[in-house]
Amino acid sequence: xxxxxxxxxxxxxxxxxxxxxxxxxxxxxxxxxxxxxxxxxxxxxxxxxxxxxxxxxxxxxxxxxxxxxxxxxxxxxxxxxxxxxxxxxxxxxxxxxxxxxxxxxxxxxxxxxxxxxx
Length: 118
Known about the structure:
Layout: E1 4-7, E2 10-12, E3 18-24, E4 34-39, E5 46-51, E6 57-59, E7 67-72, E8 77-82, E9 91-96, H1 98-102, E10 112-116
Parallel strand pairs: 2-10
Antiparallel strand pairs: 1-3, 3-8, 4-5, 4-9, 5-6, 7-8, 9-10
């Protein structure tokens, strides 16, 4: 059973920063790529960033240079450092395994709300 718990969201002003964390259960974490996704009100879920098991990162164009994804395989955690936040970053953020998403078997947990507003 996939268990993923996101945390770190909150209300910030434009230009502010947040650091999101995702804790994964079990010992399989280090064998898979991890990703962050987000869903804004009235919008489809969007891929934001991914990191392979070896640490290679990719980002959607809208967050390049502002967001940084990282992982700690020893702790089964993945983080998303978000800087220079914009109102359009407002969304519920989720972590999950991109491989499962590609297979149509993605697990979507509670997520963590990020609101960027003045």
